[in-house]
Specification:
The complex is a heterodimer of chains A (about 110) and B (about 120). Chain A has about 110 residues and is mainly beta. Chain A is built from no helices and 11 strands. Chain A is globular and about 40 Å long. Chain B is built from no helices and 11 strands. In chain B, the strands form 2 sheets. In chain B, strands 2, 4, 5, 6, 9, 10 and 11 form a 7-stranded mixed beta sheet that branches. A 4-stranded antiparallel beta sheet of chain B has the order 1-3-8-7, with no helix packed on it. Chain B is globular and about 40 Å long. The chains are: A mainly beta (about 110), B mainly beta (about 120). The interface between A and B is medium-sized, with 25 and 29 residues.
Chain lengths: ~110, ~120
Amino acid sequence: SQQGEEDPQALSIQEGENATMNCSYKTSINNLQWYRQNSGRGLVHLILIRSNEREKHSGRLRVTLDTSKKSSSLLITASRAADTASYFCATDSRKFYFGSGTKLNVKP
Amino acid sequence: NAGVTQTPKFQVLKTGQSMTLQCAQDMNHNSMYWYRQDPGMGLRLIYYSASEGTTDKGEVPNGYNVSRLNKREFSLRLESAAPSQTSVYFCASSPHDRGFTINSPLHFGNGTRLTVT
C-alpha cells in the first residue's frame, strides 16, 4: 500500500484564493516531499521537508509537517491559473512511494 | 542539459507483443526508477535501481523486466504485453546513494504513453 495519501482528491478555486492540500502517511519518515504534475508531463519537485522541521516556505508555497499526526499540508497562496495541476506528496523510503494526488483547478 | 529522457513518447502494442522502454539521464545520478501511472491510482513503483548493476522490485513488478545498462540508462521491458499494462510509464532518477533515506528530489521524464490492444 502507498505511504502518502492526499486529500481532497479534487479542488476548484478562483484565481487569487488560497489552496490547501493535505497528505497523510502511515509509518515514520525522515522526510516528505511535494511534487506538481501538469497535464501530460512528468512530476516536478516543489519542496522537501525533513521530519525535524515543522514548516517550510518556498515563494507562494508553505508546507507544514505534523509527525505526531503523520500528516502534512501544502498551502498555495494567491493562486494563479498556472497553478492548475495535480499535486502529490511522497514519503521517503528506499522505494519512494507516492499518493494518488490532489487535482487543483484554478479558474481565471 | 536534457535531464531525464524517455523514448518513445507514445506506443501502441498488440497483446503478446514485446517492447523496451528506454530511459537515460545526464545528471550523473546513482538511483533510477520506473513508475506507472493509471487514472485514480497515482504512481506505482515497478522497479528501481540504487546503483549501476543493481535492481530491485517495487510494488507492481509482475510482467516487467529491467536492465541498468550503465549509470546513465535504465530500460523497462515488457516481454508479452497485456491490456492491463496500458498506462503512462515514468522514469525518474535521484542522486542519492544506497542509503535508506532518500533526502533529495526525484527528477522525472515526461513519460511514455503505452496502449495495449
